Structure formats: structure tokens, C-alpha cells
Amino acid sequence: MPDPEANKDQVYADPRAQVAAFAFDARVADVFDDMIRRSVPGYGMTLSLLGIIAQHYAKPNTRIYDLGCSLGAGIASMGAKLQTPEVTFVGVDNSQPMLDRCRPHLADIQQQHCLELLCQDIQQTPIENASIVVLNFTLQFIPKAERLALLARIREGLVPGGILVLSEKILFDDPQIQADLTTLHHDFKRAQGYSDLEIAQKRAAIENVLIPETIDAHESRLSAAGFARDEIWLQCFNFASFLAFK
Ligand code: GEK
């Protein structure tokens, strides 16, 4: 009988003498779906609405990129909604353990759509003929100084009318709001069953790995990258998703 706890995130459940920097290794990949659902408020909603967004913006004979695709949840959501068979999904992630587990998750999607899965740094991925590019909680892992060049290449690779969906953990300029929304995020995690120890150790592990920025910083960069306009279409506490238009 399958162990119901097998895919439950317990990575930070036991006390560690030293907390190493967070990595998308096999242990994380095994439990990643549970980890992100219980860690990112609004994650499920972001995914299901991504399907609706894709229905509206996907164009025949174009490519749809999911950069930092992890287990393929974004492609699964978009692919299930799209009646347009003439699109090619391109999922990219530089974690081999993630990609190894991604392909079987996308078996159904592959029956209906072309699918390419690439194990590479998204900074090296050529973006071509794209109607939709998704960066669902991935830009935050790219060094800050390299984010503009990536966004400019994405904009360049979009067809007219193409969009970028950019979801990120965000910071706030006002220290009181920053403190309150961090507390609410931790309250959310506690309500999902994480202990104070798990929350503290994960926070220490991810601190210098996931670098969030303010909404203003994101919007200024999207504009500098050449996007004509953008809007936040979903925000849950300190997590937000932007739609940016070529
Ligand atoms: C989802 N979008 O389920 N190149 C390629 N992949 C990278 C890079 C890079 N430079 N840096 C990080 N990654 C997914 C969730 S998770 C978000 C995305 C999170 C990959 C990394 O291996 C991981 O799979 C993903 O980006 C980030 O909707 O864990 O908060």
C-alpha cells in the first residue's frame, strides 16, 4: 500500500545543527508539490487561473514556455485548458531531479500537445515565437543583476500580443506592512501544518537563495525590458502575479 506520508514535505521537520542553503535536489523534488502548495498562499489559484489566461492568449503555431517548470504544474494547467493543438509547450528547469519527475506528470498533456522538456539554465534558453512565457515563482532565484537581461530576451521572443506571466514573492517598502505580511505568511504556513521549527529552518535555508523585490522594482524592470504595460492580476499576502504585455 502506498505510504500517504511519502510525498509530504518534512524536509525541515527535524532540528539541524547547521541549515545549509536551499537546493532543488531529489529530496525536495520528491515532495515539491506538497511543499509549494503549503508554502505559497494562492499557489493553487494561480495555477488554475493560468489555464484561463492561456486559453485567452495562446496563439496557434506558437510556443508556450514555462521557465522553472519544476514538476510541470503550469504546463499541466495550461495544457488541460487549451483546445489549440498547434502549440508547443517548452518546460525548462535546471534541476534534473525536478525534470525526471516532471515528464511522467505531463504524460496526458503530451498526448494532445507537442512538449519539449529541457534541463538548462533559463538564462541560456532561446525564447522564440512565444505567445506565452510563464515565470511562476522562478525569477526570484535569478541573481538580481541578471534579471533585466532575461526579461528583455523574453519580451524580444514574444509574438505581437504575447504575454509574460510573472509570479513572485514580494517585499514592501513600509516596514510595518513588511512585518505584518511576513507574519501572515507564517500564520498561513502554520495553518498548513508546518511547525515553528520547520518555518524557521526553511526561512534560514532560503534567505540568500530566494531574493524578493518590491512591486515597484518589478514594474520598473518590466518597463525597462520593453514591456508596454503590466498589471497585477492576483496577490495573496506577500505573493503576487503580474501580467506583462509586449
Ligand atoms: C510551479 N513554476 O510549480 N534555470 C532553470 N531553472 C531554475 C533556475 C535557473 N537558473 N533557478 C531556479 N530554477 C513552478 C514552481 S519553483 C518555485 C517554480 C519555488 C528552478 C528550480 O529548479 C525550481 O524547480 C524552480 O525554478 C522554482 O509553478 O520553489 O518557490
Number of helices: 9
Shape: globular
Instruction: Return the CATH topology of the domain at 43-171 and 210-245.
Output: Rossmann fold
Alpha-carbon Rg, integer: 18 Å
Give the total of beta strands: 8
Report how far the terminal alpha carbons are from each other.
50 Å
Structural class assignment: alpha/beta
Distinct ligands, ions and cofactors found in the model: ligand GEK
Instruction: Tell me the strand percentage band.
Output: 15-25%
The sequence of SSEs as H and E is HHEHEHHEEHEHHEHEE
Largest sheet: 8 strands, mixed
CATH class descriptor name of the domain at 43-171 and 210-245: Alpha Beta
Which spans have pLDDT < 50 for at least 5 consecutive residues?
none
Average pLDDT for all residues: 94
- What's the CATH architecture of the domain at 43-171 and 210-245? 3-Layer(aba) Sandwich
- Helical fraction: 40-55%
CATH homologous superfamily classification of the domain at 43-171 and 210-245? Vaccinia Virus protein VP39
